[in-house]
Specification:
Blueprint (H helix, E strand, L loop, with lengths): L2 H14 L2 E5 L2 E5 L11 H10 L6 E5 L5 H8 L4 E6 L2 H13 L6 E5 L11 E6 L18 H11 L3 E12 L8 H4 L5 E11 L2 E10 L1
Parallel strand pairs: 3-4, 3-6, 4-5, 6-7
Antiparallel strand pairs: 1-2, 7-9, 8-9
Helix pairs in contact: 2-3
Length: 213
């Protein structure tokens, strides 16, 4: 798979928005200009992984989109869950999805550029399905995707974690080594462990566990 081909596939989802889908028993409205949670392999791959993790008292879904992973964090038993997205359309979408999934509340959904407007607290568990590569603004995905957004994330996240915090980040090989978290995180003092991998027509896909080294 190439990035151009992936962009063509995403355009199809943009054309059919808004629509409603269901993932893991969670009803999700995918509003206009919100990244589609049912697109590609990452959502089911990462979602199934999250469902197998031990719950945490405080959990964060960074780049939450429709709120899908945040709802999964609640579903596994996490206590206080926060979802954050830079895309205002996504944050508005999560409010509707919270209404549709009230049994998985409460969740605090916030508009913020990474941690810029996130109240200070320590999170025990963080998931970050980041924008794998620079984009054109569609779905709220901007030109600082890939390596640049990871570098900003790793600089800022240190104020919100302890030595015990688990950070899980998915990645797909087709994007290239330049944007691979395993090559970037160590520069900022994080250890990286490959927790899970799979292969499909698009190549290899990974889930990394990161902790303070």
């Amino acid at each position: 798979m190439s990035i151009d081909f992936r962009q063509q596939e995403l355009a199809h989802y943009l054309d059919k928005q808004p629509y409603v889908t269901e993932l893991d028993g969670i009803t999700l409205t995918i509003a206009k200009n919100v990244f589609p949670s049912d697109f590609g392999l990452t959502s089911p791959f990462f979602g199934n992984f999250i469902l197998q993790q031990a719950p945490a008292e405080t959990a964060l879904d960074m780049g939450c989109g429709s709120g899908y992973f945040a709802f999964l964090l609640k579903k596994i038993g996490c206590g206080q869950v926060t979802g954050v997205d830079f895309n205002r359309d996504a944050v508005q979408c999560t409010l509707e999805n919270s209404r549709l999934n009230s049994h998985l509340g409460p969740i605090d959904f916030l508009h913020s550029d990474l941690f810029a407007d996130v109240p200070h607290k320590l999170f025990d568990l963080i998931v970050f399905n980041f924008n794998y590569y620079p984009a054109d603004g569609t779905f709220g995905l901007n030109a600082d995707g890939g390596r640049e957004i990871l570098k900003r994330f790793f600089r800022q996240v240190k104020d919100y974690i302890s030595e015990h915090t688990r950070i899980y980040i998915p990645y797909s090989q087709f994007v290239g080594a330049e944007h691979d978290p395993k090559h970037i995180a160590p520069e900022f003092g994080f250890s990286v462990t490959l927790e899970h991998s799979t292969v499909n027509h698009a190549g290899e896909h990974y889930i990394y566990k990161l902790m303070l080294a």
